[in-house]
């Protein structure tokens, strides 16, 4: 019997919870119970036992006011006025505001009163006494209703103050845009369309739509060459050119399509002038397709060609080239994936066979004729010498097994017995559609079959209540969760041991929540010992986290951390920079302040910024109570140019960092001061000049003219410093005396060999999770083990993380260390109670240059065993390696670059940037914790906010865009269905004349033409299906737009206990899917289900609210 989780959403007209009273206007009232009741019992629930919302509508059915009943930080009602102009447009979109909860009467507030109330609410010093608590659009005076300007809430962003986002709509001139074409010719021998790049001069005038967008930093009447983004689109709506400017110089990214509309080339800004094949291979993106419009070959800048093979259902079944995942093995092959009857991936493997274009075609031909499309579940079996309960009949059948996934039940090898109950909750034995177990190989040697196993048990509502992982050493980590009716964790219990036969560590965490489901308290207890406070949260009227108490107990905390925000919801402060002692609260050990549109330092050319960039940061610690600051300057592409250091309001330049870039964002020059903090002449420690291989992003040499070994140490003085493999991975670094680096199938380093003979070796599981680091220095071997967040050195526990820091082990005595993080998740200060005197002590302080190098010369402490610092990631400083290990790449802060290519470098927003750049060269605003895609601090704060009205406040302006998307998607579906209908009538005749002519020249066979047309029809069917799915999402979101609780309900998910590894993210697949959909629908970069576990911890550096929801999914 299939199980469901139900949210009851009821509409009331004359009756309601506890005899609620409403206005006579049209309205929809929704109530979501927080405990299980029958419908007839709804009226017996108290207001704290339900979530209530009411939306009022006008006579045209348009929402005019929403009230989130009792959803404020202290139970206030959250009201959002909605206003329309005479043409029915939302010219102004108001922020929500809080009013006292009157009890049982939720009458609509009349329009005038509501607008007066919202203005009064934000007319306060903390909101800069704003008189415009709304975003506003200025429309073009035409039936097109195009937006000319859009302002944001806040005095500084008010309409006609000059800091709006501005739009212009034009067409191209006759010499403005180059006309590049991609010729596609069918190659039957290769089974794909070969491509050729041609330069056809320029587009004729008025052939392209030209849209110019000016950001909020531009002047009231800006020139196109100052702070604009220009997009040229063809008549099919495809972007042909994206143009930006810096210092008046064009930075052009061209998108070139074949005659079938497939993106075939991307020409980034650095590839200017004559586009030769050398330029295409070194700097550009190239894509090839088969006759079903499937991407089958691609070449990323500086990387070899990659290949993809599909089955008949268009699922990728083989990708390559993939380097061997096993250490000491440099062979290259394929990663293969097999599926079950429901299209779920069931296992993957590495196939050691030739990987090139010819091999791809051979594999594809075999797939095209395959009679079997899926593997089946079996009661027993073996693949690669490993017990697997699946068949293995689809070619290839010989490979090294990497991962196995099980679904629906617990009938698989080494599965634990099904408990009847977990923490008093019935366990679901029939787990249809759910992920139940996994096996992941530990990539040591090809002959070793050691792996990690994972199991997830669910309650009768299909919610994870136990996650169990057995590690490669024979130990385990499992977490049990006690959930309430709506899925919030009341408490979790985690048990861990590294190997069998040793004492178990038991961690119990308990959570309490407000009536609005916001986290109130979070406590932590080890092995039944003293309970330690992780967080005691307090929220403001809008539900934003206002303060939290940390450490010891609620009545006597070690710290009380205060947070402040501006009217746009941007974080502006952690504690008070001007006073570390607030009343009777403990002395703040750390304070941090962020300025955006204002400045205080007086540093030359540091100005207020209005587009979200940070103009200044200030910090102060209790170590010396000295206020330090950075003032920032950016170029027109939002790349950091200068960070100027100030101490005690005096510009000393002691830790300045300055940079210049090429058009792709590769650093050309980096100048850095450091080593001393006194107010004297600064010391230049780096003056770095970067040299790149011609027509590429590959760094070949860095020269330091400072003659200072601090910062970057320029050891090699002759020839190139760096060499790379065919995948763009760094393999030689002469400055660090690295003679060889080998990589695995995920381009993660397997072994680093130094000229001295010393080595660093990494062991991963097949999913890329690091399990061991083995450092051999002379005759001494040091092994670090990473076991689901618990970190060991030579088999002795060093520490494991908590929501607010970590627990360290000193001679088998476990003690808490708490940490402050800044807005980017950088570890800034660690503190703990002295075990003897119980005095609070700072044990480590870290302050950084913007690009991550640590300041030296003040507040230096003895290094701790915990090396997680910049971006919250581990510094690998053994043997002088000195890189930060992000999840998927290693980052060198001394030169501000990654060592390998971004695995997601061909994502749309990264196509105009170097695949080696860090945080899009704006590390003040973005971090890059997993090494694949930068994350903006503001959005992290939104995701962290348990205050549902905070999220509603952030997404409210997007409702209008959703309506536009809804209309657009409906039109596209109609259009594509008509096209599909036409194709089915006459598949060849309806091809364009140019396409038909070209296909006929390439291959006159009527059968090939029909096959190609069929491929286009299949592509249209897929487009329609995708668009219908997107429309369903939009419709669902729009239907929820008046209900802030429903909007973020997917974010409130069951949690588990302490941090126990990335693989546990798999047990949260439903929550992650909901979160991914939520983020995706608001246009923010998302991550896949398997990746979210690694990312979530970075989305929550300040633990602002839903820490217990997400922290348990993080590594």
From TrEMBL:
Residues 30-171 form the DUF6443 domain. InterPro entries: DUF6443, Rhs_assc_core. It comes from the Bacteria. The keyword Calcium does not apply. Pfam families: DUF6443. Residues 1-19 form the signal peptide. Keywords: Coiled coil, Signal. The lineage of its organism: Bacteria, Pseudomonadati, Bacteroidota, Flavobacteriia, Flavobacteriales. Residues 959-986, 1010-1037 form a coiled coil. This is DUF6443 domain-containing protein. The keyword Coiled coil applies.
């Amino acid at each position: 019997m299939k199980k469901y989780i139900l949210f009851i959403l009821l509409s009331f007209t004359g009756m309601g919870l506890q005899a609620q009273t409403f206005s006579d206007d049209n309205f929809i009232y929704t109530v979501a119970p927080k405990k299980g009741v029958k419908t007839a019992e709804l009226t017996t629930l108290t207001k704290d036992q339900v979530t209530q919302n009411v939306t009022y509508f006008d006579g045209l059915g348009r929402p005019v006011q929403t009230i989130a009943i009792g959803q404020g930080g202290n139970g206030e009602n959250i009201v959002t006025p909605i206003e329309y102009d005479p043409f029915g447009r939302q010219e102004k979109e108001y922020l929500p505001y809080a009013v006292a909860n009157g009890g049982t009467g939720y009458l609509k507030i009349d329009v005038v009163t509501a607008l007066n109330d919202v203005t009064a609410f934000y007319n306060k010093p903390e909101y800069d006494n704003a008189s415009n608590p709304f975003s506003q659009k200025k429309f073009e005076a035409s039936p097109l209703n195009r937006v000319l300007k859009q302002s944001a809430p806040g005095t500084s962003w008010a309409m006609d103050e000059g800091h709006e986002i501005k739009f212009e709509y034009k067409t191209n001139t006759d010499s403005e845009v180059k006309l590049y074409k991609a010729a596609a010719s069918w190659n039957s021998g290769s089974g794909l369309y070969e491509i050729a790049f041609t330069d056809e001069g320029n587009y004729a005038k008025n052939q392209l739509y030209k849209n110019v967008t000016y950001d909020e930093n531009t002047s009231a009447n800006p020139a196109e060459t100052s702070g604009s983004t220009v997009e040229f689109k063809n008549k099919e709506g495809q972007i042909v050119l994206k143009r930006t400017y810096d210092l008046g110089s064009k930075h052009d990214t061209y998108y070139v399509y074949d005659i079938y509309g497939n993106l075939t080339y991307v020409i980034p800004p650095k590839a200017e002038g004559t586009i030769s094949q050398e330029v295409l291979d070194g700097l550009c993106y190239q894509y090839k397709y088969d006759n079903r419009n499937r991407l089958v070959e691609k070449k990323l800048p500086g990387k070899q060609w990659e290949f993809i093979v599909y089955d008949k259902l268009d699922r990728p079944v083989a990708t390559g080239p993939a380097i061997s995942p096993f250490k000491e093995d440099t062979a290259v092959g394929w990663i293969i994936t097999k599926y079950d009857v429901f299209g779920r991936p069931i296992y993957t493997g590495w196939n050691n066979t030739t990987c090139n274009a010819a091999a791809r075609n051979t594999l594809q031909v075999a797939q095209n004729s395959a009679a079997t499309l899926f593997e089946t579940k079996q009661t027993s079996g073996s693949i690669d010498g490993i017990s697997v309960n699946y068949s293995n009949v689809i070619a290839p059948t010989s490979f090294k097994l990497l991962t196995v996934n099980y679904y629906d039940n617990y009938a698989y090898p080494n599965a634990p017995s099904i408990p009847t109950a977990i923490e008093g909750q019935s366990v679901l034995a029939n787990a249809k559609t759910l992920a139940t177990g996994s096996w992941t190989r530990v990539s040591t040697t090809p002959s070793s079959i050691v792996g990690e196993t994972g199991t997830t048990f669910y309650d009768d509502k299909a919610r994870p209540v136990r996650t169990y992982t057995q590690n490669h050493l024979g130990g385990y980590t499992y977490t049990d969760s006690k959930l309430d009716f709506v899925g919030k964790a009341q408490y979790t219990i985690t048990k861990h041991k590294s190997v069998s036969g040793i004492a178990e560590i038991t961690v119990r965490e308990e959570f309490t929540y407000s009536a609005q489901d916001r986290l109130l308290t979070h406590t932590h207890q080890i092995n039944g010992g003293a309970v330690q406070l992780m967080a005691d949260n307090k929220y403001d009227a809008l539900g934003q986290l206002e303060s939290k108490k940390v450490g010891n107990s609620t009545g006597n905390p070690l710290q009380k951390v205060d947070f402040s925000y501006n009217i746009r919801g941007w974080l502006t402060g952690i504690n008070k920079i001007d006073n570390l002692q607030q009343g009777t609260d403990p002395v703040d050990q750390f304070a941090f302040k962020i300025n955006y549109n204002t400045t205080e330092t007086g540093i030359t050319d540091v100005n207020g910024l209005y587009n979200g960039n940070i103009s200044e940061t200030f910090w102060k610690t209790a170590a010396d109570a000295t206020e330090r600051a950075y003032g920032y300057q950016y170029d027109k592409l939002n790349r950091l140019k200068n960070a100027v250091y100030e101490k005690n309001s005096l510009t000393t330049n002691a830790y300045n960092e300055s940079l210049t870039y090429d058009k792709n964002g590769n650093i050309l020059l980096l100048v850095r001061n450091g080593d001393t903090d006194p107010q004297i002449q600064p010391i230049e420690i780096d003056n770095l000049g970067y040299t790149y291989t011609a027509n590429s992003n590959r760094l070949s040499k860095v020269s330091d003219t400072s003659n200072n070994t601090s910062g970057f140490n320029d050891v090699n003085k002759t020839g190139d410093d760096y060499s790379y493999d065919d995948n763009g991975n760094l393999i030689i670094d002469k400055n660090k005396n690295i003679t060889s680096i080998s990589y695995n199938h995920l381009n993660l380093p397997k072994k680093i060999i130094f000229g001295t003979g010393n080595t660093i070796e990494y062991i991963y599981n097949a999913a890329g999770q690091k399990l061991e680091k083995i450092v051999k220095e002379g005759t001494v071997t040091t092994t670090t083990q990473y076991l689901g967040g618990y970190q060991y050195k030579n088999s002795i526990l060093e520490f494991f993380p908590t929501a607010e820091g970590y627990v360290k082990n000193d001679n088998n005595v476990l003690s808490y260390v708490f940490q402050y993080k800044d807005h980017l998740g950088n570890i800034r200060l660690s503190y703990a109670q002295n075990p003897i005197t119980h005095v609070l002590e700072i044990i480590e302080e870290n302050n950084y240059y913007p690009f991550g190098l640590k300041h030296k010369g003040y507040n230096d402490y003895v290094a701790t065993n915990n090396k997680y610092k910049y971006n919250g990631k581990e510094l690998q400083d053994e043997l002088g390696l000195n890189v930060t290990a992000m999840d998927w790449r290693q980052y060198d802060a001394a030169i501000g670059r990654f060592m390998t290519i971004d695995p997601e470098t061909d994502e749309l927003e990264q196509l105009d940037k170097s695949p080696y750049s860090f945080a899009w060269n704006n590390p003040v605003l973005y971090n890059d914790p997993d090494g694949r895609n930068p994350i903006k601090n503001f959005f992290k704060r939104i995701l962290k906010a348990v205050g549902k009205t905070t999220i509603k406040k952030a997404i409210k302006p997007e409702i209008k865009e959703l309506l536009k998307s809804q209309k657009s998607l409906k039109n596209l579906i109609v259009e594509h269905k008509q096209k599909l209908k036409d194709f089915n009538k006459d598949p060849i005749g309806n091809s364009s004349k140019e396409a038909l002519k070209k296909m006929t020249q390439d291959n006159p066979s009527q059968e090939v033409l029909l096959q190609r047309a069929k491929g286009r029809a299949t592509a249209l069917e897929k487009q329609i299906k995708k668009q219908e799915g997107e429309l369903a999402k939009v419709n669902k979101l729009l239907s929820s737009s008046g209900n802030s609780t429903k909007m973020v309900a997917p974010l409130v998910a069951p949690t588990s206990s302490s941090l126990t590894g990335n693989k546990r993210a798999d047990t949260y697949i439903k929550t992650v899917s909901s979160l991914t959909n939520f983020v995706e629908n608001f246009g923010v970069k998302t991550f896949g289900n398997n990746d979210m576990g690694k990312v979530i911890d970075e989305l929550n550096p300040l633990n602002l609210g839903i820490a217990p929801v997400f922290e348990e999914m993080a590594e």
